[in-house]
């Protein structure tokens, strides 16, 4: 059974195969699973992940079920486990996002169709990391030796946790930059201005204000000056450096508004790549 809940479960070869497969889909490869049903169970808001999964499923010819929590039997007391177990009786693959870390722990041994984690709380976001890796690979054709600065809300960011682990495993040097209150004890930290001129990639993270607004000891404009991509910092980037952000972006906070679509920005390319990488994952799951 092919579940993807944590990127640590994939080895480097499996990740390379997924990148290769996603590139084939981006070049127009067509595979159809017209008799397969994909169920998307999003218990937390999402624009990119939910609708790029839907787009990927449609492009693969699947029938798509979009779960609506408000109109489901959860309103009558049905448990999360029973909801997922129910969908596993009539779908061929289930995609789940949930606000609870490791929500999948009690599911993986009881669900006999593939389960893909579309983000769990501040834990993991494996499909986002894979599309980030695809974007980096398209740019540099390698991972080992690249340097990346990951900046911002490290403590609460599932994207940061997943990316730091896999990027280090792939031989990249990862610098973490964050105000003290947004640091996680698991990593070392450097000053953004100490590394911005030497990295190949700057990845800014969304301030997860819904999780911790009251803990941030900085105004949003001070945060931007200290940890954001300002015009002055942009001018210090290497010629071939790229700017990434998983989005949604707090415009003018993590990145100056006028830089979001600058020539070094790959933010919207990341979103496009999300469809190809999710096609690759669904293809692997449905084979
Ligand atoms: N990057 C990301 O996960 O975006 P959504 O929350 O819109 O899916």
List keywords for this structure.
2 domains; 4-stranded parallel beta sheet; 10 helices; 287 residues; Rossmann fold; single chain; globular
Any overview of this molecule?
With 287 residues, the protein is α/β, with parallel strands linked by helices. It has two domains: 7-125 and 272-286, 3-Layer(aba) Sandwich (Rossmann fold), CATH 3.40.50.1370; 127-268, Rossmann fold (3-Layer(aba) Sandwich). The protein is built from ten helices and eight strands. It has helices at residues 12-26, 48-59, 80-87, 126-140, 158-169, 192-195, 209-212, 220-227, 231-236, 267-286, and strands at 37-42, 63-66, 93-98, 115-120, 147-151, 173-177, 201-204, 242-244. The chain has a four-stranded parallel sheet with strand order 2-1-3-4. Strands 6-5-7-8 form a four-stranded parallel sheet, with helices on one face. It is globular. It starts with 11 loop residues before the first helix and ends with a helix. The structure holds phosphoric acid mono(formamide)ester.
């Amino acid at each position: 059974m092919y579940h993807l809940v944590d990127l640590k479960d994939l080895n480097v070869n499996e990740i390379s195969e997924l990148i290769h497969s996603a590139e084939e889909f981006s070049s127009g490869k067509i595979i159809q699973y017209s008799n397969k049903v994909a169920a998307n169970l999003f218990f937390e808001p999402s624009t990119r992940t939910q609708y790029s999964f839907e787009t990927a499923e449609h492009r693969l010819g699947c029938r798509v079920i979009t779960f609506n929590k408000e109109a489901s039997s959860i309103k009558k007391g049905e448990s999360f486990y029973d909801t997922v177990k129910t969908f596993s009786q009539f779908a061929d693959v289930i995609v789940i996002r949930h606000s609870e870390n490791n929500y999948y722990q009690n599911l993986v041994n009881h669900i006999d169709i593939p389960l893909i984690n579309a983000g769990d709380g501040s834990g993991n976001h494996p499909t986002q990391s894979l599309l980030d890796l695809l974007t980096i690979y398209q740019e540099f054709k390698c991972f080992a030796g690249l340097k990346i600065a990951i900046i911002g809300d490290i403590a609460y960011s599932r994207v940061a946790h997943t990316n730091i682990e896999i990027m280090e495993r792939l031989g990249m040097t990862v610098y973490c930059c964050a105000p003290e209150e947004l640091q996680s004890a698991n990593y070392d930290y450097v000053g953004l201005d100490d590394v911005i001129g030497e990295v190949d990639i700057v990845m800014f993270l969304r301030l997860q204000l819904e999780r911790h607004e009251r803990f941030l000891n900085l105004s949003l404009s001070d945060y931007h000056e200290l940890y954001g991509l300002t015009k002055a910092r942009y001018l210090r980037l290497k010629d071939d450096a790229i700017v990434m952000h998983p989005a949604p972006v707090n415009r003018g906070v993590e990145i100056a508004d006028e830089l979001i679509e600058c020539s070094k920005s790959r933010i919207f390319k990341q979103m496009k790549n999300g469809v190809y990488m999710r096609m690759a994952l669904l293809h692997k799951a449905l084979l």
